[in-house]
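@here heads up, posting the sequence + SMILES for the flavin-adenine dinucleotide run so it's all in one place. Ping me if the SMILES looks off, I pulled it from an old spreadsheet.
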Amino acid sequence: MDLDPELLQRIRGRAAGYDRANAFFEEDLAELREAGYLRVRPLLETARDQRLLAAHAPATALAVNMHHVWLGVARVLRDRGDHSLDWVLEDAERGELFAFGISEPGNDLVLWDSATTAERVPSTPGDRAGSQGGWTFTGTKIFTSLAPAWTRLGVFGRAETPEGPRLVHGFLTREDGHDPDGVTTLDDWDTLGMRATQSRTTVLDGAFIPDERVARILPVGPNPDPFVFGIFANFLLLIGSVYAGIADRALELAVEAVQHRASRRTGRSYAQDPDFRWRIADMALALDALRPDLESLAADVDGRVDHGPDWFRHLTGAKHRATETARSLVDQAARAAGGSGYRSSAELARIQRDVLAGIFHPSDTESIHATVAANLLGPIQD
Ligand SMILES: Cc1cc2nc3c(=O)[nH]c(=O)nc-3n(C[C@H](O)[C@H](O)[C@H](O)COP(=O)(O)OP(=O)(O)OC[C@H]3O[C@@H](n4cnc5c(N)ncnc54)[C@H](O)[C@@H]3O)c2cc1C
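bot reply: prediction finished. Complex structure tokens:
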């Protein structure tokens, strides 16, 4: 779909207000839903649109990302002949909003283990789920973007089973805007940046997911299951796209700024100053590398290209290059814009805070380097 330029301008116009008020991007979400933006599309199209959206409102784009990650996982599976998550695609077409309740405090194993407990509820008539079996989840999920609005929340937890420990992935359902039994969304989001995401803490206390909404039961530890590949591929490339969009905006703001600033020393515009010209060119040189990187990988996911063991190196690398380039470009834009960009009302000041969040999303810098080193050198010997 083409994002309507007028819609994008309205979204940009609201971003500062959401940030100042620490408010959820409710109007943006309503307009994006109305425009069909929450529907299912190929990853390449979604990645391009998310980049454009992020250039107008980083927090709105980052939060909407979480919805598109789950749609992307379901699409990866369907494209490879696994229809177990087709219901996700159908729910999304009906307007349901998916959020990503994966992160837990202090869990640097991220997807490879969970501090949340999953317990089996057998399918006996008369139990809390009627005749339906399922799993209960108890634990704390942090940074749940879209917290005020989700209607489907993907979570996972660790179960001790006779076959050994297992990770149970499933989706909670929220109806009529009320948290389901066993789920409490805290009102605790007050961060430096990405404020409109309202990525609040979600406390699970026996939250029940019926078997029909259980997506996967996997062994603890690294796993090549297509479900896991789908999460990595969609999450890392869409996160990279959001930060690439912030970098796009940083370059735009820097170009505008040097054209409006003039030197008292030379009497000329900074756009004519060799140092500032070099800086702008340097920004573009770094930025221009991101599009082919992110888009060729997204096209490979859509086209089912098999990079075998190199996939994780490519995917984590793309996230790393995009988030680090974005940080560097926003920093360079601040130098180009001068002191006016330091005012708390300046867009550059806001994206300076927003872009910092890129370093916290998985995969973090340490695990990215470990992944790439293992690809080249093999695992560390005991
Ligand atoms: C803007 C943003 C949006 C995100 N959205 C999602 C998402 O939708 N789904 C998802 O699974 N993960 C999300 N993440 C989480 C992210 O991917 C990391 O898991 C998270 O940043 C923690 O990483 P860590 O390992 O560095 O932190 P850890 O070392 O695990 O530390 C996390 C610590 O953060 C602190 N913390 C927890 N909640 C809050 C809060 N409300 N405000 C301030 N500090 C808090 C606590 O001290 C907690 O112990 C988001 C992160 C950011 C920055």
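MO: The longest strand covers residues 134-144.
MO: One more: The chain has three domains: 5-93, 98-219, 226-377.
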